[in-house]
Amino acid sequence: MSRLPTTTTKGSTVTQRTPRTSQPTADLVDEYGDRLRVCDTQFRQFGGHRAFSGAVRTVSCHEDNGLLRELLRTPGDGAVLVVNGGGSLHTALTGDLIAASAVENGWAGLVINGAVRDSAALAELPLGIKALGTNPRKSSKDGRGAVDVPVGFGGVTFTPGDVLHADDDGVVLLPRD
């Protein structure tokens, strides 16, 4: 029986999962043309997986990661969590512990319209993570916001159930059939 590799973050051991294969975003644009929604936001890469894909789940929150933290503690089933933090860089919406929880629960990635922290540790996790930047400041944990509602930024609306692909070239959403 083969063992999956593990990563240790602040005392937690995380079992690494094989990343879901993702079609290059440029190839998807060539194939789908104007039917493909392309996010214009220029994200930075933070996770150990530079390319990732999955069904969209969403959280809308502002400088409060309570809902995000709780959702990532549930089975992700290969989904990508899209977080609309309103573009705030004042506080981080995720760090290494929350991201490690995402890995443990089978999430494919995070796309955060906001900031992260613990960037060196995030780079070691087997998870796709795109965000606007970093800030070491923690966010509040009151649980304000909404889960699985359409969220918009970068000229597109992310709707739960959309299929998201992300890589070094950007973030795209496949059209619904």
From TrEMBL:
Entry keyword annotation includes Nucleotide-binding: no
GO molecular function: 4-hydroxy-4-methyl-2-oxoglutarate aldolase activity; metal ion binding; oxaloacetate decarboxylase activity; ribonuclease inhibitor activity
Amino-acid positions noted as binding Mg(2+) in the UniProt annotation, renumbered to this chain: D118
Residues involved in substrate binding: G95, D96, L97, I98, R117
EC number of the protein: 4.1.1.112, 4.1.3.17
Annotated CDD domains: RraA_family (cd16841)
GO biological process: regulation of RNA metabolic process
Role noted for this protein: Catalyzes the aldol cleavage of 4-hydroxy-4-methyl-2-oxoglutarate (HMG) into 2 molecules of pyruvate. Also contains a secondary oxaloacetate (OAA) decarboxylase activity due to the common pyruvate enolate transition state formed following C-C bond cleavage in the retro-aldol and decarboxylation reactions.
Protein name: 4-hydroxy-4-methyl-2-oxoglutarate aldolase
Organism of derivation: Saccharomonospora azurea NA-128
